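LigA protein
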Amino acid sequence: MTEISVVGDSTEWQKDFERRLHASYTTAGLGADAAERRLEDVRVGIGDWTVAEITDAGARVGYVAVTVADDNGTLAGRIGDLRVDALHAGQGHEQAARDWAEEWCAERGARRLDIRLTEPVGELFGGYHVRGQLRMRRVSSPPELVDGVTARTMTQDEYPEWLASEKAAYIGDIVRAGALSSEEAARKADRDFAKVIPEGLSTPDNTFLVLEAAGGRIGTGWVKHGYLPGVTYGYSLFIQEEHRGKGYGRAAMAAGEQATLAAGDSMLMFTVWGGNEEAMRLYTRAGYHVMEEYRWIGLPCSAT
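Structure:
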């Protein structure tokens, strides 16, 4: 029979958790320094997690870690870790731990439960909604843009309209993924953009592009260099709706890859929001694999 009990000392669990997470990052393709930097971000909140042992007949078979915190005005729970030893996997312990985590978070007022997955989703969280995916690809040589497509630096006059459009698209992605309401998403957008590009076009280590074809603008791009050691992060590679379906989406990614190499990085990373299947298909075709997937479910689960 599976039993779940909160532990007083989570040191042993944390060492194992960090080891497993670091290994998942390097397996996905991150260098050792980038994997460590990514792990540092996770460590920031670990002290607030509640860690519980999963036991069977008194023997520990795994761990589950949970937390509840305010997320842009919504009280949200999170499963930080759920692991069952390989020897005991597939015996119902995973399901029992997931049910316990959902109940634990709901009892503390959480209206949503999130989880970050570094392995294929499987059946355990198959019923959770996809909130987003972190995808990446190693860039080894400068790609060629689609014939007739050029990329140039964005001008100061073009920036205000671009910024308003990017915020609107960001808000739409968040709402479509079911992560936040439109009002919460708008507040998050204002905070996030002010944080990542406080100096606008002059913000260091950022490249802002305008894509053109046949003498007209077809899209834009925005990438951040050194997001992790050796990694450029693609905040946005956008093709205007009237120009989609012509292969320009791959051209936008190629422009981002060129900027990545020009800045001295060798990996390009994106977040794609849940519900944007078109972008997911594009990234898959272009060789961008899923490094992490974020899923969520409403609480209490009987209400979803």
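DSSP finds seven helices and twelve strands in the chain.
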